[in-house]
Amino acid sequence: MLNILEAVTEHIKNYVDNEPKPPLHVGEVMDLWTAYTAFNEAQVLYQVGLNSTTNKDLKHAIESAYKSSKSDTKRLEKFLLQEGVPLPEVSSAKPPSDPNVIPEGVKLKDGEIANIISVKIASSITYCAQAMSKSVRSDVGLLFFEIQVNLMKFSEPFKNLMVNSGWINTPPKFTPPGRPGE
């Protein structure tokens, strides 16, 4: 599946590189600016998770998410600055701390960390799709597409970790009224 996405990306790049680039429209600027802010805030969340967990699998997953998020955020930052868009203020990085000394009333449990990150990933994937669909400039749409693919590459293994660890929160089963056979 990823080979197909990579092929599509390369195909789109052929059109992007030769395309005259009009100025960004206000929606594109807002989407880029918001994504930059949200991804920076996600990195703070990942740092809090790393500071809170002792679970090796979760720690590895969070480190992967953090590294990927930093890379995507750097791409957004570079793009915004090249287009002359000022960067928003974002939260400062959290220093590393020992998860064993965090008081119980403050420390996030592994399942809580995983579910918060899962929601962040899902909302980011949806946000990228929405921003991509509104983009007039192909390079903006492609940027959101590539970031969305990065998020999707991470989301499935993360979901599997959550399922295998018993951390996934699922809604109750729904049986519609009047279902045949009842």
Overview in brief:
The protein has 182 residues and is an all-alpha fold.
Give an overview of the whole structure.
This protein has 182 residues and is an all-alpha fold. It is 68% helix and 0% strand. It is built from 5 helices and no strands.
Keywords:
single chain; 182 residues; mainly alpha; 5 helices; 68% helix; 0% strand
Query: How much helical structure, as a percent, in the residues?
Result: 55-70%
Strand content bin? under 5%
Number of strands: 0
Average per-residue pLDDT, rounded, comes to 90
- Helix-and-strand structural type: mainly alpha
Q: Count of helices?
A: 5
Largest sheet: none
- Mind telling me the C-alpha Rg? 19 Å
Order of helices and strands: HHHHH
Distance between the ends? 40 Å
- What low-confidence regions span 5 or more consecutive residues with pLDDT below 50? none
* Overall shape: globular
What is the secondary structure topology, with strand pairs?
Blueprint lengths: L1 H16 L8 H27 L3 H27 L27 H25 L3 H28 L17
Helix pairs in contact: 1-5, 2-3, 2-4, 3-5, 4-5
